[in-house]
Specification:
By secondary structure, this protein is α/β, with parallel strands linked by helices. It contains 21 helices and 16 strands. Strand 2, helix 4 and strand 3 form a beta-alpha-beta unit. The longest helix has 23 residues.
């Protein structure tokens, strides 16, 4: 199954989080290329030219050069930049090794097109040329000196091999540049990239072989930092207030006051610009007292949400990028009716939303009509039962594997994303699923589910699809809890969790 290059990068990061270094993945990738090539071209005595650039694909090329020498080939390596421009630590480490292997590898540095032209004979005489130039991060037309290198590669009589994707093929869209590397063989890592499947790309891919580079199944199944990075983009330095997301939180009642404030503060700490908390008028002052950062919208409803607040909620939702609904609402009949109508409105509008707590309980009564494609539902096992009528097996006996099929089935039936909160969160949109395995017992304290909903709402507000937002939010919530537990043990509160979200994001450079 082909994957988007963003997902491929996420898998690399998740594998690293599991303890498999990027350096090891690079080693495996380079070795896999050589093994694929050796099956097709006996390398003894052959002239092999490797053309590398500054990124991790260039690093793969450095590894390839080293492994090819074992087979008795004559190896030339051209670096299309100055060595100090190599951009990743792993590639730099492998380049240092290349510099030390001057007896078996001839290294040429050619940062300009003029430098390359002087090396034309290397292209003309090569038996094999390996493309280690632009990889899954490349977009647009190749620039110099890469463009000249591509012309020289394609004019050569050599057998041409591309690492992962041919340079000049957009790994996402499959668009092909004029001088794209015309491969006889493309050796792709772990899974083919989506761009390789386009009709245009098929003209330059040649034969495609997929090699195992050591990414374990857990990197795909378990939520990790790669999933977080996929959906959390850096702030545009020229952005204005509101450009980084506006979240509407609808919750609270005279019985439960703190829950919506926790969700809204979590959304702010996750990076949104504005968090609006819409609550019954009787608790407005109390909610305002939690933080001056919150915009608190009094509802016409006095003690609990009811239908008289619906028009105002629609107006607020229209101004918001995502809605978080449910925490602390209570289960009065008039509240349920308001929830039903508001969710119907949001669903018809395609508004991204997180539905939690009492709102989930209300939806259990109309489950047969629900098709919530823009929503993330965040039940625990008890709420899942009220929502679906299906009782999940005990996690201590069945583990997540004993629950995942039921969660997937209901996510499919409701056309939605379900984030089942437990020791091992299960996230599914009915087709895919992910498991959150990190976390600690301190996260059972009241309010952490409200924090999770706010985090997921924040990620939704910045354009992530519901499944990706739920996976990333689940990971971030628990990783933050683990940061606190490492310092304080398990005796912390939901407010502590909110305050440490930025620290957790900084650990991943976000």
């Amino acid at each position: 199954m082909a994957i988007h290059p963003d997902e491929a990068r996420a898998l690399d990061e998740n594998a690293e989080f599991l303890g498999i270094s990027r350096l090891q993945l690079m080693e495996n990738a380079g070795k896999g290329v050589v093994e694929s090539l050796q099956k097709r071209v006996p390398l003894q005595g052959k002239k092999v030219l490797i053309v590398s650039y500054t990124g991790n694909k260039g690093g793969d090329g450095f590894v390839v050069a080293r492994h090819i020498t074992y087979f008795g080939a004559h190896v030339d390596l051209i670096l299309l930049s100055k060595p100090d421009q190599i951009s990743t630590e792993e590639a730099r480490k492998n380049f240092i090794i290349i510099e030390r292997l001057s007896d078996s590898i001839s290294l040429y540095v050619a940062p300009t097109s003029q430098d390359l032209v002087s090396l034309k004979e290397k292209f003309d005489s090569a038996d094999v040329i390996i493309d280690a130039m632009l990889g899954t991060g490349a977009r647009g037309e190749p620039k110099e000196p890469i463009n000249t290198a591509l012309e020289l590669c394609n004019k050569s009589r050599a057998y041409r091999v591309a690492i992962d994707v041919p340079t000049g093929v957009d790994p996402s869209t499959g668009a092909v540049s004029k001088n794209a590397f015309k491969a006889h063989l493309t050796v792709t890592h772990h899974r083919p990239k989506l761009g390789l499947l386009s009709d245009a790309a098929k003209e330059v891919n040649g034969e495609i072989e997929t090699v195992n580079i050591g990414i374990p199944p857990e990197a795909e199944i378990y939520a990790g930092p790669g999933d977080l990075r996929m959906v959390m983009r850096a702030r545009d330095p020229y952005s204005h207030k509101g450009d980084n997301g506006r979240v509407l939180v609808v919750g609270g009642s005279f019985r439960y006051v703190g829950a919506p404030a926790l969700a809204a503060m979590a959304a702010l700490k996750t990076g949104v610009d504005l968090a609006v908390v819409a609550v019954p008028s009787s608790i407005v002052q109390t909610v305002r007292s939690f933080s001056p950062d919150l915009i608190v919208q009094p509802l016409p409803s006095h003690e609990v949400l009811d239908m008289q607040s619906l028009e105002l909620l629609k107006q607020e939702a229209e101004r918001s990028d995502a809605v978080v609904l449910g925490m602390g609402l209570g289960t009065d009949q008039k509240t349920k009716e308001a929830v039903w109508e508001f969710v119907r409105y949001l669903n018809a509008a395609g508004k991204p939303m997180v539905i939690d707590a009492d709102a989930l309980k209300a939806l259990g009564e109309i489950r047969e009509e629900l098709r919530l494609s823009s929503a993330v539902l965040t039940p625990h096992a008890g709420e899942f039962y009220i929502l679906t009528g299906d009782k999940l097996p005990d996690e201590r006996e069945a583990g997540w594997r004993g629950r995942v099929d039921t969660v997937r089935r209901w996510a499919s039936k409701l056309s939605t994303t379900i984030l089942l909160k437990s020791r091992y969160d299960i996230i599914s949109d009915g087709e895919r699923f992910k498991i959150k395995t990190i976390g600690n017992p301190g996260l059972t304290v009241g309010g952490t589910g409200d924090v999770l909903s706010g985090i997921v709402g924040a990620i939704l507000s910045r354009g992530a699809n519901p499944f990706r937002a739920a996976v990333a939010g689940s990971f971030l919530n628990s990783f933050t809890g683990d940061l606190i537990a490492g310092e304080k043990g398990y005796h912390y509160t939901a407010k502590d969790l909110v305050e440490r979200i930025p620290d957790a994001l900084r650990r991943f450079g976000l």
